[in-house]
Amino acid sequence: MAGWACLAGSLTVLAADWNQYRGPQTAGISPDTIRADWSGGTPKCLWRVPLSAGLSSFALGQGKVFTVVARGTEGGTAEVCLALDAATGKELWATPTGTAKYQGGGDSGTPDNKGGDGPRSTPACDGGRVFVYSSTMVLQCLNAASGKVLWKQDVIASFDGKNIGWQSAMSPVVGGGLVYVAGGGAGKSVLAFKQATGELAWKAGEGSITHATPALATIQGVPQVVYLLQTGLVSVEAATGSPLWTFSFPYRTCTGCSPVVAGDVVFCTAGYDIGGAACQIVRRGGGWETRELWRVSGNKEVASLWSTPVQKDGFLYGMISFKQFGSGPLKCVDLRTGKVRWEKPGFGAGQVILAGEYLLALADDGHLVVVEAVPVAYKEVVRFKAVIGKCWSTPALSDGRIYVRSTKEGACFDLASIH
Known about the structure:
The protein is mostly beta strands. The two termini are 15 Å apart. Strands 1-27-28-29-30 form a five-stranded mixed beta sheet, with no helix packed on it. The longest helix has 4 residues, at 13-16. The chain has one domain: 7 Propeller (Methylamine Dehydrogenase, Chain H). The protein contains two helices and 33 strands. It has helices at residues 13-16, 155-158, and strands spanning 29-30, 43-50, 59-61, 64-73, 76-85, 91-99, 124-126, 129-133, 138-143, 149-154, 173-175, 178-182, 190-194, 200-204, 215-219, 222-229, 232-237, 243-248, 260-262, 265-270, 275-284, 287-296, 310-312, 315-318, 330-334, 340-344, 351-355, 358-362, 367-372, 380-385, 396-398, 401-405, 409-418. The radius of gyration is 20 Å and the shape is globular.
């Protein structure tokens, strides 16, 4: 097997910060470019640290790495936001942000945490602040340097919110000085708060939440936030919350996949026999409409439970499967038709990101696999065991370094240093 890749060129840390779930634009795409002239060896591990239970991914900013774990405290097991030194993995601070108690969906193995593998929401960071959305739907803003709580908003208590089975897994999304979440009651289903103060910026919409994190997108020239609610896709203007368009997509039981936006086409998916669908967004005069391109029901072709695909050149790439843990395939799907172009089993329910012409796929068993992002066939470049433990989290790629975590540990690898 060929060795690991080097990164072409060097981006500054600030330019390459992976500051929230699925990266700065929430699309799972890194600005880093991976070269094709592979050489022998494996990437150098810069650090490896033990972590307690959690399916939260890493977010990076200001030389720190942020994630959420379940950790024992004097009051019991808590969701705890951690800040690690991005260069060494050293823990800098730890702030409890909620109670770690979940219904169903697995077992982390701890007596007081039956029914879950720990927190699933990923922090977001911006402007020296870290934003955490707890499983009980409390949004908190922490000081990135110290972990001190600056403000908090309880969506259930203050906005007539209602939680979901297995509790919220949604990650907060940041952009334009605002932080976006969902979960409020009628007329305030989707919410935006001012990052600096926690003041409500706008509220809008109907529909209960899913576990899916919203996506930032600019469609037909308009910056917007696209949510996957139980009613389907709901898009609002990012700055004002003004409703733009909706797309009906039924909901049953659970989905954690974010909407995937490719130009004017949006893909959504869910397990439990729902399947997947894609729609085209059309803007006519002052109005918007959606045109269904295709819809496939069932759990076999394009149904995904947690793993959100990435898109490149009109094709989806991702671990698209339903409850095929350890064995589920990595797939390429034509975004315009919903047809599977190729699939390779053995990835399970992990996550992928895109860097240039390559997929970086973190399988649910902790193997990190580099695959060419081409629709003609599955073309693997290299793989190696990155971490032990269950991996449903998304890798973070920043300034030539990839950060990965599992329910047991976190690690950082230097892709420009091969040995």
